[in-house]
Automatic annotation (TrEMBL):
Keywords: Signal. This is Pyroglutamyl peptidase. Residues 1-28 form the signal peptide. Residues 320-345 are annotated as: Disordered. It comes from the Bacteria. InterPro entries: Peptidase_C15-like_sf (IPR036440).
Amino acid sequence: MNSIRVRIGVLGLALLAGLSAPTTGAAAAEAAPAPTVEEQRLDKAVPQEILRRSGFDALTTQFADDLAAARSYAQAHRIVVREGSALWRRAVDRAQGRGPAGGDLSRDDDRPLYWARLSMTRDVRTWEPEFGLSTGQRSALLDALERGSRGQTDIRYPHGSHGSHGIRQILVTGFDPFTLDRDIRISNPSGATALALDGTVIETAEGPARVETAVFPVRWQDFADGTVERTLRPYLKQVDLFTTVSQGRVGRFDVERTNGAWRGGFGDNENVSRTETIPVADPASQPQWTTTTLPYKEIVAANTGRFPVYDNTSVTEIPAGGTQSVVRPDGPTPGSTARAGGGGDYLSNEIAYRATLLRDRLGLHDVLPGGHVHTPVLQFGTGNTDPATGSVTDPEFVRNRLDIIAQVRTILKVAAGSPVTS
């Protein structure tokens, strides 16, 4: 009888261990999901040409080979972390003129990073190793790859914070290309700016300032999962200025005065739509509006480049007690409900809202300049506007992108040398 109890006890312990142990064995394997909508665009001719003409096709091939050779989850995780970070560094180095160009595509181009990342995430998503992957393990690999290849784990301020050693600190974010079903050739100048400025030093009226950058996806779910807050929270108390940047209107820059707590439903890079209040932690204390603390007057007044810069004060609201949306050119009225910030109701408005709300919740509203800058739309040259017949690049396209990057750098120089706007 005692021996039976022992055997039952051992069996019970084994069952408990099986429930609590990491699911790393083949028995725990789960079927690999299909590629995402975003990843499925990879097989089109334009992404393949961009990868080939930048040399990033060799990076993706090597990653696929390394991943296939992994013999354990731990080894796969090390590969993903290493190669995700290496992809970001390779993209930054290429944009800043270090190392081989890898092809004839302009170095300032952000698209090789975007398409190479998607190639790598597709490899991880569809990989079925002999040792098996659980859903949680696959998600962890994808998360590590996403964060590393976006520069989100590469933010470094070696001189400390808040002007230590005479070096001020600036944090800048950009975005992936989007509206790819309209024109798969599209580039995002905010992402290109992030690559061009990462780790650089800008001379300002208040002394030198080091810029660190990261890039974010154009996907509603990632934002709902807290990717913005997770990335920015460790640094907002450390930096002297932050600016979220995205592509906005044709022919102009905008400093967006007000950000609204509303998602307007435009399809993201997965062709997913969301129409709702922006989901954040502690929704009971969530404001309908947040405001910039960037020195917008000084930025607008400065000669920063060839594109005009506007202080954009317009919003769309439902007035207190009302039911219909109203455009307000001079900002929201008391008690109103947000329907669009100055930057609209898409993810550019959302990153601005989340970043400035985080600033405020950290008690930094009156001391930390921060907000959103919209760049001009990056346009192809005359005669190259039809995606069905056009080429992936042209001289005017490159010149426009370089001019936008240079103007963002000058805007940061002005902002970092000016007092906070509260």
